[in-house]
Specification:
This protein starts with a helix and ends with a strand. It folds into 3 domains: 118 residues, Alpha/Beta hydrolase fold, catalytic domain (Rossmann fold, 3-Layer(aba) Sandwich), CATH 3.40.50.1820; 304 residues, Rossmann fold (3-Layer(aba) Sandwich); 87 residues, Sandwich (Immunoglobulin-like). Strands 6-7-11-8-12-13-14-15 form an 8-stranded mixed beta sheet, sandwiched between helices. The protein has a 5-stranded mixed beta sheet with strand order 1-2-4-3-5, sandwiched between helices. It has a 4-stranded antiparallel beta sheet with strand order 19-18-21-22, with no helix packed on it. The protein is of the alpha/beta class. The protein is built from 12 helices and 22 strands. Helices cover 24% and strands 27% of the residues.
Length: 551
């Protein structure tokens, strides 16, 4: 009887200890209803608090909004309880949103809720919580985890930063969102969207996004929504590491490098970031295929990853030297790609560049090669450059449109596939509509080949492998037969362009049936001089380019 009593007391003690241990790991924070625009009604949220809470620079709680029971196939192999427990153990507050397998909880519709969540956090209240970090809170899909503050380069204080006491460079970082315990590998999209500032004292060192533009305030859901397409994501600090609009004095002018990314410094960092992501991703369920996403300054930086020109000074700096820095695809918004184009017009929005660039590189007229080498267009050498989808609104600053137009001319000249979406919004903004997001995701899917998940993508394009574009004969003397395969009915635009990208011939066709299509082009009727030309065929927004010779 005594032994039995001791056993019961011991068992009770063990149970109490286990309960206390569970409470020490995390505590239940409450539940309620949250209104979802995607489902058209209320969905249940449940909040759990960690024992030791991660805090941001201003004392607010790092929070993960965890979307579960979605309308698409889950990739991570763990249970949601396992991954939520892991997040709590890292120190995150976790707010679980249960979508109950709603059929609308798929890409790109789910991005509308991501925007609502980010806006609520940025405005100071989400699910009744007023202390979620604006700077370091994340929306994660079920099955995904996060690895924060992965160093990808050590900053050189002699390049950009202005405080005299900034003599030892700080690391710049990225965060990687990856599938946990997945049975398949997934590609990843990398964006340079953070700002990391050094305010002149150790107190303000390593202040990621502790500036006016917060992570939750970006409304940039292409990244956070990528896992709904079977694509992981990573978000990296801008190559320029310093307070916004500042820079080391050059030639007596401070802010000489105030708000733009240049070679070789930025390109070295971008390539090191790609290598770091590929090397670290090998142990995170990532396939090794990497896409780039960039907007504004992030577009300047991201565009430096797409070119195929080999420059040892860029490739042999930073981390994981020897790992491939190739990328497979890119989406680039308004940015600066060729600094020699800044004087194309006055009053078009780039007066800061017109003023600052000559301070650093001297007059353009006598330093043409130096100016050329600073931008990403210089790194585009052959058709091995990654395919690009550009995006911009035509009411944005005029110089952005000029930069994109000139960059596209060079891509066309080199035979690089590219396409463009425009006017998805107003001004200097990123795509947020279902149609524009569908275009971006569909373009990426062609080159990153993610695992199949159920999505609601609008079928705007088809894979190039299914297009089977041919032009015969080539070289062309009098006429040529253009043949191509359509996976679906749709609109097709056929153009012949010269080496500058100018269209010399254009025709629009509507095909009501899928299958093999053909067009005879009477080259002689166009009175083209002998030489090299490009045939461009646009199928529902996707450009495919073939080079041909006129004899």
């Amino acid at each position: 009887m005594k032994h039995r009593l001791e056993f019961k007391l011991g068992l009770r003690t063990a149970i109490v200890a286990m309960l206390l241990l569970t409470i020490s790991i995390a505590s239940y924070g409450g539940s309620g209803n949250w209104t979802s625009s995607v489902t058209g009604g209320n969905i249940i949220y449940t909040t759990s608090e960690p024992t030791t809470q991660l805090k941001d620079n201003v004392g607010n709680n790092l929070t993960v909004v965890y979307l579960e029971n979605m309308g698409f196939n889950k990739i991570g192999g763990n249970t949601n309880a396992t991954d939520v427990s892991w997040l709590l153990a890292q120190g995150y507050r976790v707010i679980e949103l249960d979508y109950a397998n709603n059929i609308n909880a798929v890409s790109p519709k789910i991005n509308a809720d991501i925007i609502t969540i980010n806006d609520a956090i940025n405005n100071g209240s989400f699910c009744g919580y007023t202390n979620c970090s604006k700077y370091k809170s994340y929306v994660l899909f079920e099955g995904y985890r996060i690895q924060r503050d992965v160093s990808y380069f050590k900053d050189d204080p002699t390049i950009y930063n202005y405080p005299a006491n900034y003599t030892v460079g700080d690391s710049i970082f990225m965060d990687i969102i990856y599938p946990a315990n997945a049975t398949v590998t997934v590609p990843v999209v990398l964006s340079f969207s953070y700002s990391n500032s050094w305010g002149g004292s150790e107190t303000y060192k390593h202040q990621r996004l502790n500036l006016g533009n917060t992570l939750s305030g970006f409304d940039d859901t292409f990244l956070e929504g990528a896992p709904a397409n079977g694509i992981a994501w990573a978000i990296a600090d801008h190559p320029k590491y310093c307070d916004w609009g500042q820079g080391k004095p050059v030639g007596g002018a401070n802010k000489a490098y105030g708000s733009f990314e240049v070679n070789p410094d930025a390109a070295q960092k971008v390539k090191s970031a790609v290598r770091t992501l590929r090397a670290r991703g090998a142990n995170m369920g990532l396939s090794g295929k990497i896409g780039i996403y960039g907007f504004s300054r992030g577009s300047d930086a991201g565009s430096m990853a797409i070119g195929d020109r080999s420059v040892p000074a860029l490739e042999n700096a930073g981390l994981h030297i020897g790992v491939s820095d190739d990328v497979q695809v890119a989406a680039l918004g308004s940015g600066v790609f060729d600094f020699t184009q800044v004087f194309n017009a006055t009053g078009d929005g780039d007066s800061n560049l017109e003023t600052r660039c000559p301070v650093v590189w001297g007059p353009l007229a006598t330093n043409q090669s130096v100016w050329e080498s600073q931008g990403s267009a210089y790194l585009v050498e052959t058709s091995a450059t990654a395919p690009v989808i550009f995006f911009y609104n035509t009411d944005d600053a005029a110089y952005y449109q000029d930069q994109i137009a000139k960059f596209k001319e060079k891509l066309t000249l080199k035979g690089v596939t590219h396409t463009t979406i425009t006017n998805y919004g107003i001004g200097h903004a990123v795509p947020k509509t279902n149609t524009s997001l569908s275009s971006l995701y569909t373009f990426f899917n062609q080159y990153l080949t993610p695992p199949n998940v159920a999505t609601g993508l609008i079928p705007l394009t088809q894979k190039e492998a299914d297009f089977q574009l041919t032009l015969s004969p080539n070289p062309v003397k009098s006429s040529a037969l253009l043949s191509f395969q359509l996976a679906n009915s749709g609109n097709v635009k056929i153009e012949i362009c010269n080496l500058t990208g100018m269209a010399l011939y254009s025709i629009d066709r509507t095909y009501t049936q899928a299958g093999q299509q053909s067009e005879t082009i009477l080259i002689n009727d166009l009175n083209l001089p002998n030489g090299v030309y490009f045939l461009k065929v646009n199928v529902n927004g996707l450009n495919t380019i073939k080079k041909f010779i006129k004899e």
